């Protein structure tokens, strides 16, 4: 069950900033704690940049979700880029192909409650993260 | 594109980041700072991030690069005002920002730079002949 | 079997015409289970209020306790459960107070032996059952709210962050640290560092009986977070068993300063800042 899904393109630097701001707004609306807001926005920033830099641009989809006990936020990042050939390696701390610190994927995973990655070489990558209110 | 202003106050360059920076803005700041350090000959840089509600790995890396570059240019960088939630998130992210000196606020940052200047004065001329930048602890 | 409008109005009349004897009998029955912890007068007042709420609901044609006409009754029942919950009565004792209406009603029905009265009574009894279940539910809700309030108060009470010296704050941790509490303490400590501009924090764990991996991780992360913000943490009061656990669990305290007592930690910090405590 989810409501008011919001979509944003992730094609430029400014889009990354817009994704951060949207995620922050929704995180405040579902009453995540300040630390959890910060963690989620940071994770969104890492993943949006990945979509832009490695995926060649794509889309972010932010929605509020509920299960029987809690409210939360789900963010889906999707691109039609080259995909990730070795997922285990990509999720290793410090591994990078883009000259970054290699903490984007692995770090973002530690900042959220649920992390799902769906990728196929040549087809693109879709990453879904969820953060629940405590 | 917005630009982060760099102020010179006494012997210190003060940068207060007040906006949610695009990556390009962060890179521009890195360039601007290097130029201003050389142009002004200051020995200390203070970067106030108390207005930032997040620091991701890109901004973290930019701060680390700024610190390294300014050290090569013989200026010490202190990052001040990091919010608790930001610090907790950075720890979780796995970003420990090695090589960056930090202080709780601008005042403490200035005091930290002043102490370092005293140390250098105590060492006298010997220090000036030493061209190699001190390795970070 | 829901109460029909006819049955409801018949019972409304019954409750009205026997108002006093019913309330008296009801409070007597309810009082039996409370073993004198509520005064007779208090109980009688409560049953009188409840009786008139029941009567009002039935006169309004309520067939179930969730009906519009029973709004006042629900309010009365919620108030009853909230009072009882706060006074420490059990859920059963509270529900019995409502169930007792059935026996009291039987009492005023007298010796009627016809099937129609029996049918009426069964329907009415089901109505009272649902009212009692409603009471039970709201009792549980009140208790849950009480428990979570108390947990929060306990958290407030047990996690003070105190200023020890100019530029030095301390958190004396007392009691068992679970993950949630450790997180709250640590966030508060970091915020206090900012608010007071203190570059030193002492985390004293003298009063902590045990440390598990998760709690140790929280403390370590806090120390690292504080360092990122430009403050130094010292851990004091590590008891021998805890030191053993820490080593056994393979937790690296690395270059984090540890001192035997809070006093040692303070002396260490003052030494670093160049201040000397005056003896």
Automatic annotation (TrEMBL), chain A:
Keyword Hydrolase attributed:
no
Q: Name one Pfam family in it.
A: HATPase_c
UniProt keyword Transferase, yes or no: yes
Sorted keywords for this record are: Kinase, Transferase
Which InterPro entries is this protein grouped with?
Answer: HATPase_C_sf, HATPase_dom
Spell out the molecular function terms from Gene Ontology: protein serine/threonine kinase activity
The EC number of this protein is: 2.7.11.1
Q: Which EC class does it fall in?
A: transferase
Q: Know the name of this protein?
A: Serine/threonine-protein kinase RsbT
Q: Which organism is it from?
A: Actinoplanes campanulatus
From TrEMBL, chain B:
Q: Which InterPro entries match?
A: Bact_StressResp_Reg, STAS_dom, STAS_dom_sf
Which residues does the UniProt record annotate as the domain STAS? 2-113
State the Pfam families in the record: STAS
- List, alphabetically, the PANTHER family matched: RSBT ANTAGONIST PROTEIN RSBS, RSBT ANTAGONIST PROTEIN RSBS-RELATED
Any idea what this protein is called?
RsbT antagonist protein RsbS
From TrEMBL, chain C:
- The keyword Phosphoprotein is assigned to this record: yes
User: What region holds the STAS domain?
Assistant: 158-269
Pfam families per UniProt:
RsbRD_N, STAS
This chain's protein is named RsbT co-antagonist protein RsbR
User: Can the keyword Phosphoprotein be found in this entry's annotation?
Assistant: yes
Coiled-coil regions listed: none
Keyword terms of this UniProt record: Phosphoprotein
């Amino acid at each position: 069950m989810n409501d008011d899904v919001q979509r944003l393109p992730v094609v430029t630097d400014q889009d990354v900033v817009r994704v951060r701001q949207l995620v922050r707004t929704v995180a405040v609306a579902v009453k995540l704690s300040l630390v959890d807001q910060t963690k989620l926005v940071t994770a969104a920033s890492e993943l949006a940049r990945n979509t832009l830099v490695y995926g060649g641009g794509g889309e972010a989809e932010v929605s509020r979700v509920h299960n029987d006990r809690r409210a939360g936020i789900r963010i889906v990042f999707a691109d039609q880029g080259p995909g990730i050939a070795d997922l285990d390696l990509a999720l290793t701390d410090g591994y990078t192909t883009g000259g970054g610190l290699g903490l984007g994927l692995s770090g973002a995973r530690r900042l959220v409650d649920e992390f799902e990655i769906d990728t196929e070489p040549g087809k693109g990558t879709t990453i879904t993260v969820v953060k629940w209110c405590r | 594109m917005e630009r982060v202003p760099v102020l010179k106050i006494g012997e210190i360059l003060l940068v207060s980041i007040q906006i949610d920076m695009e990556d390009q803005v962060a890179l521009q700041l890195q360039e601007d700072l290097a130029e201003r350090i050389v142009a002004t000959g200051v020995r200390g840089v203070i970067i106030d991030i108390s207005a930032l509600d997040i620091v991701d790995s890109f901004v973290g890396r930019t701060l680390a690069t700024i610190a390294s570059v300014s050290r090569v240019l013989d200026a010490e960088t202190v990052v001040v005002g990091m919010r608790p939630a930001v610090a907790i998130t950075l720890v979780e992210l796995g970003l420990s920002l090695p090589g960056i000196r930090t202080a709780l606020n601008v005042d403490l940052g200035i005091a930290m730079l002043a102490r370092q200047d005293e140390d250098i004065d105590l060492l006298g001329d010997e220090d000036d002949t030493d061209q190699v930048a001190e390795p970070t602890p | 079997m829901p109460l029909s409008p006819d049955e409801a109005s018949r019972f409304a009349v019954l409750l009205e015409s026997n108002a006093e004897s019913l309330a008296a009998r009801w409070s007597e029955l309810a009082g039996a289970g409370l073993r004198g912890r509520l005064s007779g007068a208090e109980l009688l007042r409560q049953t009188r209020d409840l009786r008139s709420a029941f009567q009002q609901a039935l006169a309004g044609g309520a067939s179930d306790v969730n009906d519009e006409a029973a709004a006042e009754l629900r309010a009365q029942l919620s108030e009853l459960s909230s009072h009882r919950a706060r006074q420490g009565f059990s859920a059963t004792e509270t529900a019995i107070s409502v169930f007792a209406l059935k026996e009291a009603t039987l009492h005023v029905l007298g010796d009627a032996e016809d099937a129609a009265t029996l049918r009426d009574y069964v329907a009415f009894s089901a109505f009272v059952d649902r009212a009692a279940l409603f009471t039970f539910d709201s009792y549980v809700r009140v208790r849950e709210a009480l428990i979570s309030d108390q947990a929060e108060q306990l958290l407030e009470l047990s996690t003070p962050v105190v200023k020890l010296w100019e530029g030095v704050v301390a958190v004396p941790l007392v009691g068992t640290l679970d993950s949630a509490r450790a997180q709250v303490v640590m966030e508060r400590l970091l915020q206090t560092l900012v608010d007071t501009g203190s570059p030193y924090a002492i985390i004293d764990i003298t009063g902590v009986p045990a440390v598990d991996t998760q709690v140790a991780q929280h403390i370590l992360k806090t120390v690292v977070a504080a360092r990122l913000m430009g403050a130094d943490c010292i851990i004091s009061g590590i008891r021998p068993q805890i030191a053993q656990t820490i080593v056994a669990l393979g937790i690296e305290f690395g270059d984090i300063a540890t001192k035997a007592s809070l006093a040692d930690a303070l002396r260490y910090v003052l030494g670093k800042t160049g201040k000397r405590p005056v003896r």
